[in-house]
Design a protein that fits this description.
Number of strands: 11
Mean pLDDT: 95
Order of helices and strands: HEHEHEHEHEEHEHEHHEHEEH
Number of domains: 2
CATH class of the largest domain: Alpha Beta
Low-confidence stretches: none
Structural class: alpha/beta
Distance between the termini: 21 Å
Strand order of the largest sheet: 3-2-1-4-11-10-5-6-9-7-8
């Protein structure tokens, strides 16, 4: 089978795998409960939703969600709900974690807790987003747009390895990885020089079987006509599978512009943890949350 090219390919692939159990932290919003319901009905996961049982029942009733499809753990308050959900994953009672209505900073603190969290000692968390854009022929896999604010060169090495792992789970055997900067020339600023180093590491197979290019601009990474116009003759010709962004600002802006202006759908999760941790925006759609659940289950 060839590479996945649509987000809908992810749940289709998961249905052939052993079913995973997901803990939902503070699952008191309609989009989360609707996505969980859909994922359970489509045999993607089993689920336990942690939060106020009364609030979950109220939101579910208003959103046409059948709460008999999943377990509810009655915990009052955002922080206790996050702690309880993380504990389920840490204890092995669940295979993956999902953020509900929780604030991202609180959710991440629960994951990063040194005593009771999900980060291995010396590890690095990274956020991976998988986009499907209208009229674009492949999925776009991007990191890091939400967790590491200003990654060092060594951070980018680890981010690349984690992101390539996700790409391979999407059946992209030899991912084309674009190390992004503002120009295809090596310039004096750090992102340009680090992209050149990372591309050199790719040539030496330090990331395994990938095709890497950098520094490279976003247009040459994604659009063949930009390469033709600019006369760019690099290893990537507008056909990148993976985009490694220089910092959180550039990645986060691209993420939101693609979703809001470009009409793209996205699946997203945190990697580098002992289990996949789904991290979407509280404002993301039910579809986005559903595809993120499937992505987590595929990598659990």
């Amino acid at each position: 089978m060839g590479p996945m090219t649509h987000l809908s390919d992810i749940p289709a692939a998961v249905k052939g795998l052993p079913r995973k159990r997901m803990a939902v932290a503070y699952g008191e919003d309609a989009h989360t409960l609707q996505a969980v319901q859909r994922a359970v009905r489509e045999d993607i996961v089993d689920a336990i939703v942690v939060g106020s049982a009364a609030k979950i029942a109220e939101v579910a009733a208003a959103s046409d969600v059948d709460t008999s499809l999943f377990e509810i753990m009655d915990v009052q308050g955002e922080l206790p709900s996050i702690k309880a959900a993380v504990k389920l994953v840490r204890d092995g009672s669940a295979h993956m974690l999902m953020k509900g209505l929780a604030h991202t900073d609180n959710y991440m603190r629960g994951i990063l807790d040194k005593e009771n969290g999900l980060l291995p000692e010396g590890g690095l968390l990274s956020h991976v987003a998988v986009f499907e854009a209208p009229n674009y022929p492949r999925l776009i896999i991007m990191s890091d747009v939400a967790v590491v604010p200003l990654p060092s060169l060594q951070d980018k090495v680890r981010i690349t390895k984690l992101t390539v792992g996700v790409a391979r789970s999407l059946r992209i055997d030899v991912p084309k990885v674009a190390f992004l900067s503002a120009s295809e020339s090596v310039l004096k600023f750090a992102s340009s020089q680090e992209a050149a180093v990372l591309a050199g590491m790719a040539v030496r197979k330090q990331f395994g079987a990938i095709i890497g290019e950098g520094p490279i601009s976003i247009d040459c990474a994604l659009f063949p006509d930009a390469c033709q116009i600019k006369g760019f003759t690099g290893r990537i010709q507008g056909d990148a599978d993976v985009i490694i962004v220089p910092n959180i600002e550039s990645g986060n802006v691209f993420y939101k512009v693609l979703c809001r202006f470009g009409g793209g759908d996205v699946a997203a999760m945190v990697t580098g943890t002992t289990a996949p941790c789904i991290l979407t925006s509280r404002g993301d759609s039910e579809d986005s949350k559903f595809y993120s659940i499937a992505l987590g289950a595929l990598n659990a």
